[in-house]
Design brief:
This protein has 475 residues and is an alpha/beta fold. It contains 16 helices and 14 strands. The longest helix is centred in the middle third of the chain and has 26 residues. It is an enzyme of class 3 (hydrolase).
């Protein structure tokens, strides 16, 4: 039996351009979907594609415009990650920083140079960049002109983006993810795919957009392996198994259906074809996907090298409509599990659920796994020096790392690395808040955008440094 994590295990942390970068129109960057998603009561209607907001206005506050200003502070931030001993840093590119309109003939050199500088800073410290090509990010021009991912044209624009970045960064970046939480387009269609709905069949549009993203992901994989055979391309899933509320077979069946809804995307990206259960579901829903000749072959021949995922919580469901009516709060509706504690935002804390999820994914796909998001969003109260005594975060991460270690040592799951979410405080994707903090590093900024943006180390900073130093032995 192995003693623990492999010597090359990639410890690090994760962020996304749309939640930390800021500099939203600097360096010739174009407007992105996240730049028109406000904080406050209109946030969810916009993210769901129910409320049309194509430009920012004076009445709302848009957290992405400055975020935590990684754009101007990346050297300091990466220096702090290096101090913790990061082996890898997961970040995403802003599509509109590289192609401001998305359909531009030539890329924006200033945007490309910015990411050159970021990668060089990482490599200076021996930190391996793990790059998400698009993380809840579509140039607004493409939303307005072609309806974003509902249009097949998006595949070509995404291809062009991939060709440019793979060629440009082929000696700086080895690990790539095609889409962040690709299954999110079913739950938050505007944030996941830039979709806005009129009176129309929303499910049909979502699954057609999903097909376009799956084709784009396969194209990216094909292009990547041609440009640099050493590249490792992964897909990315918002994961977490769904438990049955009771042992009633109807509840067990319902839980299986809920899991399949998420596996659907990865089944295609990892196995290379649409599963039969999905084809039958499309038949029942009268959804007829428009496919082009060669699509099936492309999917079959360009499966991903590894599977990455986010894990925050497990879910719970019932076949009884009255019982299920109690679900509320989060993007993924779930019943409250009486056996679990919950975070301040109602997310259920289930460390063993991570081991269950790891095993479910590994059993299903037999490909290397990578946990690229995991963490606890909490209200932190800093002292006058910005120091936070965040024992609750340390406990959350410690318990999850323990079960992750069990999955590797006892169950034999092949795990590449672990990058907890929001290694530095950033804007919450779901709520747009700053007070929902995940980081090892505190950033002085509040929900209204006030603050000095000063960075300071929390207690968890030193703790995580020790975890990395000992390769997960000292927790």
């Amino acid at each position: 039996m192995s003693k623990g994590f492999s010597d090359g295990f990639l410890w690090g942390g994760a962020t996304a351009a749309n939640q930390c970068e800021g500099g939203y129109l600097e360096g010739n960057k174009g407007l992105s979907t996240v730049d028109v998603i406000p904080a406050g009561k209109d946030r969810f209607p916009v993210m769901l594609g129910k409320m049309k907001m194509f430009k920012s206005d004076e009445e709302h506050y848009y957290p992405s415009h400055e975020a935590i200003d990684f754009y101007h502070n990346y050297k300091e931030d990466i220096g702090l990650f290096a101090e913790m001993g990061f082996k890898t840093f997961r970040l995403s590119l802003s599509w509109a920083r590289i192609f401001p309109n998305g359909d531009d003939e030539v890329p924006n050199e200033e945007g490309l140079k910015f990411y050159d500088n970021v990668f060089d800073e990482c490599l200076k410290y021996g930190i391996e960049p793990l790059v998400t090509i698009t993380h809840f990010d579509v140039p607004m021009h493409l939303v307005e002109t072609i309806g974003s991912w509902r249009s097949r044209k998006m595949v070509g624009y995404y291809e062009r983006l991939c060709e440019v970045i793979f060629e440009r960064y082929k000696n700086k970046v080895k690990y790539w993810l095609t889409f962040n939480e690709i299954n999110m387009l079913l739950h938050l269609p505007f944030i996941g795919a830039g979709l806005v709905f009129e009176e129309e069949n929303e499910e049909a549009i979502k699954y057609q957009a999903a097909h376009h993203q799956l084709i784009a992901s396969a194209k990216a994989t094909e292009i990547a392996h041609k440009i640099n055979p050493e590249f490792k391309i992964g897909c990315m899933l918002a994961a977490g198994n769904t438990y049955a509320n009771t042992c009633a077979p109807e509840d067990v069946w319902k839980a299986m259906e809920k899991d399949r809804e998420n596996y659907f995307f990865i089944d295609v990206q990892s196995r290379g074809e649409y599963p039969n259960y999905a084809k039958k579901m499309f038949e029942r829903m009268n959804i007829y996907l428009e496919m082009e000749e060669g699509d099936e072959e492309l999917l079959r021949n360009n499966t991903v090298d590894f599977i990455s995922f986010s894990y925050y919580a497990s879910r719970l469901t019932s076949a009884d409509p009255e019982v299920n009516a109690q679900t509320e709060g989060n993007v993924f509706a779930t019943l409250k599990n009486p056996y679990l504690k919950a975070s301040e935002w109602g997310w259920q804390i289930d460390p063993l659920g991570l081991r269950i999820t790891l095993n479910s994914l590994y059993d299903r796909y037999q490909k290397p796994l990578f946990i690229v998001e995991n963490g606890l969003g909490a209200v932190d109260t800093p002292d006058e020096n910005g120091y936070v005594e965040d024992d609750y975060r340390i406990e959350y991460l410690r318990e999850h790392i323990k079960t992750m270690r069990d999955a590797v040592i006892i169950d034999g799951v092949e795990l590449m690395g672990y990058t907890p979410w929001g290694c530095i405080d950033l804007v919450s994707a779901s709520t747009g808040e700053m007070k929902k903090r995940y980081g090892f590093i505190y950033v002085d900024k509040d929900n209204e955008g006030n603050g000095t943006l000063k960075r300071s180390r929390k207690k968890s900073f030193g703790w995580y440094k020790k975890v990395i130093e000992t390769n997960g032995e000292q927790l």
